[in-house]
Amino acid sequence: MKCLSDYLWQTLVPLIFFSFVWMLYRYLDKQEEVEAIKLEHTEMELKFLKSQINPHVLFNNLNTIYSYSIEKPQETPELILMLSDNLKHVLYESNSKTISLEKELQFLDNYIKFQKIRTEGVKEISYHVNVDNSMHQIAPLLIITIIENAFKHSIIHSVVDININVKNGQLECVCKNKYNKDKTSTSDFRIGLKNLEKRLQLLYKDAHEFEITRNDVFKVYLKLNLQ
Questions:
Q1: Which of 94, 108, 120, 171 is 20 to 30 A from 141, alpha carbon to alpha carbon?
Q2: Widest pairwise Cα distance in the chain
Q3: Tens of pLDDT along 45-98?
Q4: Rounded (to 5) percent helix, strand, coil in the chain
Q5: pLDDT at position 39, please?
Q6: CA distance 211 to 214
């Protein structure tokens, strides 16, 4: 019995040990597979969210150029060049995980110029940018969602107020506009901004603040820790 006991002990202990090692290896291997799937899902979701933004931005710009080609054809070439820059930004540069803050702000500047043309005599635009360092990196096409939402839902003969400040590696964007509470439902605002909220959670999970307040003025506040 003693010999049998010793034999079983000498056999079972290594067997249990190596079984444990094998199970641990399988568990770690499975975790790596799960993480890879999560990463792939995140990247696909980001591409999908960006694809929802791109056509909307370009469609608005094309409408502006079409209107100008009829009313002010002599100024149309400059608008086409601006659209070309925006196309390059949206179709190529925005495919990167991050781009230079300088390029993203130039994209916003072009968009605001288009809006000033489209809303001339209908809306007033207050647009201010203060940047202490434009060499930072930022995820593309984040701020444009906030600005587009302001123009889309602001009432006529009102002010669209946009302020962007970059200081000590932090970006703050405050966008305010008056809107018609009776004619605009909450769901109208949530489509684009909800997509933005998802992107922020994916890209800046613990490095952002995002707040929406709806009183007499619709206000969106975004704060990002830039790279």
A1: 120
A2: 105
A3: 556 556 655 566 677 778 778 877 887 788 788 888 888 887 787 777 777 889
A4: 60, 20, 20
A5: 54
A6: 10
Give the DSSP H or E segment for 28. Answer: helix 2-71
Flag whether the pTM goes above 0.85.
no
Question: Which residue is associated with the tokens 């984040």?
Answer: 142
> How do residues 165-224 score in pLDDT, each as one tens digit?
999 999 999 999 998 877 655 555 566 788 888 888 888 989 999 999 988 899 999 999
Q: Bin 219: left if φ > 0, else alpha if -120 < ψ < 50, else beta.
A: beta
Question: Other C-beta atoms within 10 Å of 79: how many?
Answer: 21
pLDDT at 117: 83
Residue type for position 127: Y
pLDDT, tens digit, 9 for 90 and up, residues 122-151: 899 999 999 998 889 998 888 988 998 898
Alpha-carbon separation of residue 125 from 113, 128, 160, 207 (angstroms): 10, 10, 5, 29
One-letter amino acid at 40 equals: E
Secondary structure of residue 216 in the 3-state scheme: coil
Domains along the chain? Answer: 2-225 (3.30.565.10)
Dist CA 53 CA 56 (whole Å): 6
What strand order describes the sheet that includes 159-167?
A: 124-131, 159-167, 170-178, 217-225, 208-214
Read off the tokens for 4.
């049998």
At 192, list the tokens.
């684009």
